[in-house]
Write a structure and sequence with these properties.
The protein has 103 residues and is mainly alpha-helical. It contains five helices and no strands.
């Protein structure tokens, strides 16, 4: 795995806490990693870095052979189903990814 930025590591760690049940008010269960990254950076006062950190995350997805838009789902319909059920943090592929990158 390539070296990732400190801010992306911090995001993955915070998101993992959220996915495992810690209440974090700026995260939402109805959005994936990319949108929650925005909320994390905004709360951290680093929203100006959003597109740089998002590009880093998307590059990680592509380097792993994943779709950069729906890396953990079988397209938009699958993602939307998770979104409607507020079930996005429970996607096992997403959780495995976050656990790996939160180290």
């Amino acid at each position: 795995m390539q070296q990732q930025s400190e801010v992306l590591t911090a995001f993955y760690r915070a998101y993992l806490d959220f996915a495992e049940g810690k209440p974090i008010s700026y995260f939402t269960k109805s959005c994936g990693l990319c949108h929650n990254l925005f909320w994390f950076l905004q709360k951290s006062g680093k929203q100006d870095n959003y597109y740089y950190v998002l590009a880093e995350m998307e590059q990680q997805f592509m380097d792993a052979g994943l779709n950069k838009v729906y890396p953990f789902n079988n397209g938009a319909d699958d993602y939307e189903g998770e979104k409607e059920g507020n079930n996005i943090p429970n996607n096992q592929k997403r959780l495995d990814w976050v656990r790996l990158h939160a180290q």
